[in-house]
Design brief:
It is built from seven helices and eight strands. By secondary structure, the protein is of the alpha/beta class.
Length: 223
Amino acid sequence: MKSIKKLNKVKSIKKIFRYFNLDLRRYYPQRFAILKAKDKFMGKEIIACEIGVFDGEHAYQILKHLNIKKLYLIDPYTNNTNYKGDPMSNSNFLSLAKSKAKKLLKPFKDKIVWIEKLSKDAIGDIKEKLDFIYIDGNHFYPHIDNDLENYYTLLKQDGIFSGHDFSDGWIDVVIAINKFAAKRNLNIFASSGDDWVLFKDSEIGMYDKTSTSKRNVTEKVRK
């Protein structure tokens, strides 16, 4: 009964938003990686990339809150055997997610470069260095490891490398990030919302402001 009441309340809120021609998703809190990027770039025009776009809601937040010159959006929108049994990975659901993303991001079409390929194939389509990279693609080994190694080469020296699902539920992501950071002596910053962030220039001690932090120590930030 409580769940039904809660569902009806959500439906009522959505009706109110539709009545005033508002979009509920625009009032979601900004993700940790975007907040870190705002602090780092301070309004500077940047070139960014997101791997794993799905319905476009996070890409929307990137475009809304950062000064984006160009945003590469990478997602093949095809089934993946690693997610077998997950209803969100079936063809019909992915097609709906793609349509939703295209509609949501249409106002920013002049800033977006869509690449509907697997990330390992899409990297060849990017011919420039990037300021901000957000990885939320295939969460399983070796795919997450490959994304980290491949796309880090595209990041500018003062860029931000980031992504989603640094949590107990995605152990391959946690292991991959820790191995990657340890190899480069980078500090891992993470949030209660499961975002992870690495500052490339902290590799040479330029941006690491946390004098008490150590390699592979996760900074938990409560929103």
